[in-house]
Structure formats: structure tokens, C-alpha cells
């Protein structure tokens, strides 16, 4: 069984599926996306992370949410057990011909995007709605007020924030109170800058969800950061990716990971990470 933890009021899996690679650039097509989500769910995964903005720059919007909806509609398992999280506040753009992520935290736009997300996901109420990324053009509390309004109106049940600093977590908590249940920040062996937010979440009793927990799907600049994980993996006879995820989950009971996958094989391997027990010596070596 995939490791379960409490994320706010949800009993869900500590390892979720990050949907992004299935619908942004270089995805392997719609059928592979459905197959990957079904494989994850069939293996016991109960947390899927998507976003309004998980589509190819210049292409049809919200394809990530559309894929998740189709996969859920066609899945025969217990749908009510699955936590579907989505995010608003980003959109895709081109900058000098390169696909990029635009920021839009204007309250009226967040409200419009979230209502579109609920409709696209085919739900009256989104389980968990994140504000995707601070917009430097909009005071942070004003974006958070829009998320609060969405909770008050029943468009979403629980709130999260993403790419947030300690100061922004405190602002969001002032606005959202206990309905703020998750902070989704980048965290991995090659990205430790968010350690302070991870510790702050532990103090506040808020879930910390690591994005790009394996360092992302692009080749990292410094591969050597994974060397100690490879050594531990060899001793256990598992992939080093499982060791990375197990190390992240060992940072506290409030820790969650959402590894991305382009295909069933990788998410199926990642879902085993909760069974991997690392010794104190191994954890000390990994840092
Ligand atoms: N909140 C935000 O601003 C934000 C930003 C970025 C990402 N995210 C979320 O975080 C999720 C994960 O991030 P990510 O997809 O960028 O990166 P990631 O999870 O760090 O890495 C994904 C890559 O790791 C590979 N992989 C996964 N499990 C593996 C395994 N067990 N063995 C070998 N390779 C494995 C995948 O391979 P294959 O390609 O071969 O399947 C994929 O290329 C996204 O899907 C998205 O939901 C959120």
C-alpha cells in the first residue's frame, strides 16, 4: 500500500502524481497521459496535482485539468478517495519565442480561473485550490483574499499557496486561517533554498508539498548532488529516485511529494518510496 498521510482534512497518499509533464511541452500524448494517471490510481495513488496552466504555450488552455477529468471519469476505482489539487495564477506565454509561465494574481482573474477549473474538472467544489505563484504586480494579501472568497463561495473547500516565502505564508494564514492547509514549494537535493519554509510549515502544522522533488525533468546542472542518493540506492537495490523521495518524506510527517512522470513506469516506481526505510546513518549522510 502506498504510504498515507493527513494533508489538512484529507487522508491521502504522501506520494502524489504531478500531472504537469503529461500536458506541457514534450508530453507523450493524450492516451499515454490517461494510461499514466490510471496506472498511478490503480497502484493506490490518491493525490493528483494539476493546474489551470498545465498546457502547452500557445495551445488549448487547461489541458491538464481536462486530462485529469477524463482519467477520473473513465477510472473504475473509488473516485471519492482521490484528492485532486489544482492551482490558479499562472498562464502560458512565449518570451522571445520560448514557452514561459506568465503570472496573474489579480483577484478578479483568480476568481474567474478557479471557476473555470471547477467546471473543467467537473466538480462543484475543488478539493484543494492553490494560489500558484505570487504576482509582483498585486499585493499578496489581495490575491489571498480572492482565494478566501472562493472558499466562502464554495468553489473550493481548502486552500494552498505555492512558491511562497515565510512572510507570504504568514500573510496567507492571516487571511485564510486554518483553511490554509498546504504550501507547495520547490524542494529537492538540488534545491534546498526553501528549507526555512519547510520548517515554518512544520511549526504551523501545515503540509509541505515538494514540487520537482526529483530535481525536475531537465538534466540538473550539478548531477553530483545525487551521488550520495545513488550510493544508498545501490545498497537497497532500488532506484535513486526512490531514495530521494524517501529522504524528503523523512523530513517530517507534514511532508508530501508529487513526482512528475511522462509514463506509467516512473510513477509506479516512485510510489514505492514510502516503503523504503532509511537508517539514521543513511539519513545523516544524505543531509
Ligand atoms: N507549484 C509549482 O510552481 C510547480 C512547478 C513545477 C512543478 N510542479 C509540480 O511538481 C510536479 C513534479 O515536478 P516535475 O515533473 O517538474 O519534476 P520531478 O518530479 O522532479 O521529475 C520528473 C522527472 O523524473 C522522472 N522520474 C519520476 N519518477 C522516477 C523514477 N521513479 N525513476 C526514474 N525517473 C523518474 C520522470 O521521468 P519520465 O519523464 O521518464 O517519466 C520525469 O522526467 C509537476 O508535475 C507539477 O505537478 C509545481
Please characterize this protein's 3D structure.
- There is one protein chain.
- This protein has 287 residues and is α/β, with parallel strands linked by helices.
- The protein has a single domain (4-222, 241-278), classed as NADP-dependent oxidoreductase domain (TIM Barrel, Alpha-Beta Barrel).
- Helices cover 38% and strands 21% of the residues.
- The chain has 10 helices and 12 strands.
- The chain has helices spanning 30-42, 63-74, 107-121, 140-152, 166-176, 195-204, 227-236, 240-249, 264-270, 280-286; strands spanning 4-7, 10-13, 17-18, 47-49, 83-88, 90-95, 98-103, 126-131, 156-162, 180-186, 207-211, 255-257.
- An 8-stranded parallel β-sheet has the order 3-4-5-8-9-10-11-12. A two-stranded antiparallel ribbon has the order 1-2.
- Helix 3 (107-121) crosses helix 4 (140-152).
- The longest helix is centred in the middle third of the chain and has 15 residues, at 107-121.
- It is globular.
- The two termini are 27 Å apart.
- The mean pLDDT is 97.
- NADP nicotinamide-adenine-dinucleotide phosphate is lined by residues 18-21, 49, 132-133, 162-163, 184, 211-217, 239, 241, 258-263, 266, 269-270.
- NADP nicotinamide-adenine-dinucleotide phosphate binds at residues 18-21, 49, 132-133, 162-163, 184, 211-217, 239, 241, 258-263, 266, 269-270.
Amino acid at each position: 500500500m502506498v504510504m498515507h498521510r493527513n494533508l489538512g482534512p484529507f487522508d491521502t497518499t504522501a506520494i502524489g502524481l504531478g500531472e504537469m509533464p503529461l500536458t506541457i511541452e514534450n508530453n507523450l500524448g493524450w492516451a499515454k497521459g490517461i494510461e499514466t494517471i490510471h496506472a498511478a490510481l490503480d497502484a493506490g495513488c490518491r493525490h493528483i496535482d494539476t493546474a489551470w496552466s498545465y498546457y502547452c504555450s500557445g495551445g488549448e488552455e487547461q489541458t491538464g485539468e481536462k486530462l485529469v477529468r477524463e482519467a477520473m471519469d473513465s477510472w473504475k476505482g473509488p473516485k471519492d478517495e482521490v484528492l485532486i489539487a489544482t492551482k490558479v495564477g499562472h498562464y502560458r506565454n512565449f518570451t522571445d519565442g520560448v514557452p514561459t509561465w506568465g503570472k496573474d494574481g489579480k483577484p478578479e482573474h483568480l476568481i474567474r480561473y478557479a471557476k473555470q477549473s471547477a467546471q473543467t474538472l467537473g466538480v462543484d467544489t475543488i478539493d484543494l485550490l492553490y494560489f500558484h505563484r505570487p504576482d509582483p504586480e498585486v499585493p499578496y494579501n489581495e490575491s489571498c483574499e480572492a482565494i478566501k472568497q472562493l472558499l466562502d463561495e464554495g468553489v473550493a473547500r481548502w486552500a494552498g499557496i505555492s512558491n511562497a516565502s515565510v512572510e507570504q505564508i504568514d500573510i496567507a494564514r492571516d487571511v485564510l486561517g486554518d483553511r490554509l492547509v498546504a504550501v507547495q514549494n520547490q524542494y529537492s537535493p538540488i534545491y534546498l533554498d526553501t528549507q526555512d519554509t519547510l520548517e515554518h510549515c512544520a511549526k504551523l502544522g501545515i503540509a509541505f508539498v515538494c514540487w520537482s522533488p526529483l530535481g525536475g525533468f531537465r538534466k540538473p546542472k550539478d548531477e553530483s548532488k545525487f551521488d550520495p542518493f545513488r550510493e544508498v540506492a545501490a545498497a537497497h537495490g532500488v532506484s535513486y529516485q526512490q531514495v530521494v523521495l524517501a529522504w524528503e518524506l523523512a523530513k517530517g510527517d507534514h511532508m508530501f511529494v508529487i513526482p512528475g512522470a511522462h509514463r506509467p513506469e516512473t510513477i509506479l516506481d516512485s510510489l514505492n518510496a514510502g516503503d523504503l526505510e532509511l537508517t539514521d546513518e543513511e539519513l545523516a549522510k544524505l543531509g
